[in-house]
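> run fold DUF86 domain-containing protein
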Amino acid sequence: MSKRDIKVILKDILDEVTKIEKFTKDIHYEIFLNDEMRYYAVIRCLEIIGEAVL
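> ok
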């Protein structure tokens, strides 16, 4: 794990989870899969979460 403060790491993760919730709220799974921009936004959030824990 990096030398970043754990509180900063957890805040970064929480921020990205909040974005994912916003991007996927009240949307059917099939619509989500066919919305390329929304789909890639969620993937990017997951990438950022992955980077936060390295």
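Helices lie at 6-24, 29-34, 36-52.
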